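Supplementary Methods, section 5.1.

A reviewer requested that the exact input to the structure prediction be made available. We therefore reproduce it here, unchanged from the version used in the analyses.
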Amino acid sequence: MSLIKKCNIIGISLGDAAGIGPEVVYKALSNSSINKNSQYLIFGSEAVFEEVAKMLPDIKPEVPYQFYHSAKSNQFKFSEKMKGKISKKCGQYAVQWIKNAFLAYQKGEIDALVTAPINKEACHLSGFKFKGHTDFLASLCKSNPGKMMFYSKKIKVILVSHHLALKEAINYLSVKNILSTIISGNDNMKNLGIKHPLVLVSGLNPHASENGAFGTEEQKIIYPAIEKALRLGIHVKGPYPPDTIFKTALEEKKSIVVAMTHDQGLIPFKLLAFDSGVNITTGLPIIRTSPDHGTAFDIAWKGIASERSMIEAINLSIRLSRNP
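The structure derived from this sequence is encoded token-by-token as follows.
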């Protein structure tokens, strides 16, 4: 199948072959909700895709796609015993497929990248030294680490800190890091076509500290970051108590929440949008989205994984690539 550069070409990496990545990609490309005005270049094993096709004989991708071929990718041999299990080999190839996708992006062969989930333990077994996709792509881009933004129709969230132990995450908070997150959230809401977004900033402590009664971070670093953002012309409010900010966000349809830590932002987000949420990596020269779920080894290769989040990730990548 030949891809002709007359519309968006979206790269999709299959992630860990032992997980649900190949299944949700295959199902997404077969779903009527997928954007049919784009073409798709898959970074992964064609043999793995053929295994998925055997598992799901009643569906078939209906959009233009082909596989990116490289010598290393073609060497991958997938076996029944790998399914649903942590594997050094699967981790190694998942990393290689991301590298291939990045190189293709550099050459202008794809307009955006959608990544199926990797298993960090499997990747680390293969010598991978990064916390995940975000840090790895930042390294490939020779860029500062991007921010993790999470998008759904109901709610949008961006994290100041992400894959850090809680103690480290609190130490990471600073006026500079909070301000850069506010700016990134505001800019990316505009990239999504949302005019005049409202940035809602969460506090760190209970009740946003109640003027120092339960901590000093709000007064020392969060308020100053908000004041700087206001001087830049950003429509920003806060800090709000962490236990009420998401109710406010649901009422304010054009809002995005700046959460201080990973779980502060993602517990409510996944509660509201577990099957449809999309992770957007901001601040990098590459457009990258991913479904908001992991490899789900417990349900992998059973034909029951939902493709909804992958569809949203693909369609959102197209929307971002048309409005960079």
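The chain has two domains: 1-145+284-324, 147-282. These observations are discussed further in the main text.
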